[in-house]
């Protein structure tokens, strides 16, 4: 049986679908919601837990930050046979999304470098329609609010999304205007690459993020609503990816 190069997992270590998270600290927190969680050996800081939720065997894998490593994790899991992926995490949000609300990817614009190696065409990648619908249903069932729309994905956090210095300030302002003109709802560092890789690999993918940074004011969500939002995000993602067709 083959072993994934960087993750180090075999097909029988993982479930039939996966939630991809950025922050490895989220693995224990989401793992506590699974039945019989098994924390797999960690290589290169890449943490994974496999367990059962809603009678479905599922893995949750943390990639860290950025498109190159996120696609490596997705690609290795797809190579082990996984067919459905939901990326969850945090994002900068733009109106009509509100701080602490959820944003769901319909499609994504790519301003990162990984997509081009996977792209099958010049068209922006589109999220899997059935996963998007499951996420929207799960948001309602969890009494939360969400907006579905276009994501934009970047590599250079402190040049494209958030300014730490005057040199970054001018570029971020220019980028923000472009995002407004193109009707972008949220920005992150992985979605366009994961949707593009998903299309190329023939697997379903969608993103659910908690809006934690206001794209206009650059104000960050406080720790308490962030922690509450993260908990809700775990439940929504688990409900959505394991939603049974006959029970919808
Ligand atoms: O909250 P997570 O999922 O880590 O994601 C977001 O936070 C990181 C820094 O912006 C990027 O990886 C971005 O996509
Ligand atoms: O501003 C933000 C917040 C979270 N994730 C991002 O990519 N950008």
Automatic annotation (TrEMBL):
It comes from Planktotalea frisia. GO terms for cellular component: cytosol. It is an enzyme of class 2 (transferase). Its EC number is 2.4.2.3. PANTHER family: FI09636P-RELATED, URIDINE PHOSPHORYLASE. This is Uridine phosphorylase. It comes from the Bacteria. It catalyses: uridine + phosphate = alpha-D-ribose 1-phosphate + uracil. GO terms for biological process: nucleoside metabolic process. One of its GO terms (molecular function) is uridine phosphorylase activity. Keywords: Glycosyltransferase, Transferase.
